[in-house]
Amino acid sequence: MALPARYSVFILIILLALFCFAMTLGGAEFFIWPFAVFAGLTGLGIWDLTQKRHAVLRNYPVIGHARYMLESIRPELRQYFFESNLDGAPFSREKRSLVYDRAKDIEGNKPFGTEYNVYANDYAWVNHSMVPKGGPGTPPVDPKTDERLRISIGGPDCAKPYSASLFNISAMSFGSLSANAILALNTGAKTGGFAHDTGEGSVSRYHRAGGGDLIWELGSGYFGCRRPDGGFDAEAFEKQAQNPQIKMIEIKLSQGAKPGHGGVLPGAKVTQEIAEARGVPVGVECISPSAHSAFSTPVELLEFISTLRRLSGGKPVGFKLCIGHRWEFMAVVKAMLKTGILPDFIVVDGAEGGTGAAPVEFSNRLGTPLRLGLSFVHNTLVATNLRDKIRIGASGKLISAFDISGALCLGADWVNSARGFMFAIGCIQSQSCHTNRCPTGVATQDPKRQMALVVPDKATRVANFHHNTMKALMDFAEASGLSSPKEFGPEHFYLREGHRTVLPASTAVDWLKPGSLLAEGHDHPGYSTYWLMADPDTFMPIRSVQSAKDARQAR
To answer: Which residues cross the membrane (predicted)?
Structure first.
């Protein structure tokens, strides 16, 4: 019976092993080392045939290992040899190069026109003006002091409003990022005069050493103000919130990468430094629940915001979320109307965001993309006469002047970026963040790997990236005939619908009028039904439109 052809390489190896063995016995010492090699490969082939885990190796002994070896370096082969400027996910080579150049303070101009298909259905752009502002000879932009590039955050009940840049570092925790990465980011933020969100991991010694402005993010684990049972510790919060570095407090309800998903930090990863920052025991498993324990209803969320504002001495307090069930956000808005308690800001995270590792289904198929979520939040606040009292931030794959201006057109007051600033400190998108083997020392706790990240150099790059992006944003706004990026509106942002129809966002998106959700008998598709389903006393929906109407009449 003939052996299958797929075994031919293995059979050849056996024959070569036997030949070298015979030659060795015959006194040809030269064949000792070839015999050792082929004998080892023969043993490997026998193991391949007897193991039960990999079908490929059982069918293709020895040579089947080449498949696994090539698969292991497939990302590197694509990235370095086969990727075009517009390829690469989640960020194309062109966008990564844009950040690298701006971080290194290299001129970012490119020749020969765009490589994008400007007639593609998903192509979007901002229109320019026949009477642009600015131009050669105008004073240079200083993002630290230029009020055109800054926004005051703080509502009626805020005693210490914060003047924020239009572009800041989004939430990334110490523990997810290395100590050197955190220090470089925060030092760069101080140099450039913009804010750095701590992420859920709280304020570490490296944030404090950097000296830059901080947005302290509170997740469901309440790190930095956590009781031994995992609940919120008001006394610990009040003590830390007095830190003058902390300019705002942000409650994380959900995030774009994994909305509705908690997390577990294994005890082996809870080092002395991480335990110090998070307020947890060293070496003990640390759990972040899926939901908060400090509140369970929309009204309780707002009362919690009021408590944090009081304990922090009047600093701006808000919340971050990726939009999910629309009635839940509308329930919070109804609770604002009911209690009179308002957050100072709301950060809308898009489902396309995500520095943290997450289950594939969560990353790909859960949560609302930024443009849709952002316009929904903006519309809901406008239609309830609350928009002028609450600032809106946006995050989710925003790194260029066009990305920022697009978000501003759709309702944002400012923008946060995580991966953009990761690129600025050396990230090469190897997507090995969760393995502790980051090749550039950005997303690892391996002390030897993070030594590769030289803090002074990368801090300068962070500041350069921010400064050059703000300059580009100002140039972009002036080319559109605007005096400031804050003047961008939906009429400036254009979308293509099909091959023939071109619409500005002011037409392509439904924009609600002030107070329209408070009027009787309103009928706004995508809004009215969910508004009737929303209850300020619970996140659960009123199950039908008719029962919602009955409930409203009863009140």
So the answer is: 7-25
pLDDT tens digits, one per residue of 272-307: 998 999 988 888 887 788 899 999 999 999 999 999
Angle at which helix 8-25 crosses helix 32-50, to 10 degrees, equals 140
CA 229 to chain centre: 29
Its pTM stands at 0.86
Task: Provide the pLDDT for residue 547.
Answer: 61
326-339 and 370-382 are packed helices; what angle lies between their axes, rounded to 10 degrees? 30
Smallest CA-to-CA distance from 348 within 254, 421, 458, 475 is with: 254
Which residue reads 């490589």 in tokens? 115
Amino acid type, 379: N
In this structure, how many other beta carbons lie within 10 angstroms of the beta carbon of residue 445? 18
| The pair of three-digit structure tokens given for residue 276, joined into one six-digit string | 């110090």
* b/e sequence 193-210, b meaning 16+ C-beta within 10 Å: bbbbbbbbbbbbebbeeb
pLDDT, tens digit, 9 for 90 and up, residues 365-378 = 788 999 999 999 99
CB 198 within 8 A of CB 171: yes
pLDDT tens digit sequence for 99-130: 989 999 987 777 777 877 888 878 888 899 98
Closest CA to 108 of 90, 95, 117: 95
Closest CA to 395 of 254, 292, 213: 254
Burial group, residue 264, by CB count within 10 angstroms (0-12, 13-18, 19+): exposed
Task: Name the nearest CA neighbour of 192 among 165, 171, 153, 215.
Answer: 165
Q: What are φ and ψ of residue 77, in 5° steps? A: -60, -45
More confident residue, 278 or 73: 278
Burial of 521 (0-12, 13-18, 19+ CB in 10 A): exposed
415 pairs with which residues across the strands? 167, 394
Q: How far apart are CA 74 and CA 505, in angstroms?
A: 40
For residue 532, give the DSSP letter. Answer: H
Task: Give the chain's largest Cα–Cα span.
Answer: 103
Residue 24: CB atoms within 10 Å = 17
Distance CA 500, CA 121 (A): 10
Tens of pLDDT, residue by residue over 497-521, are 666 678 888 888 889 999 999 999 8
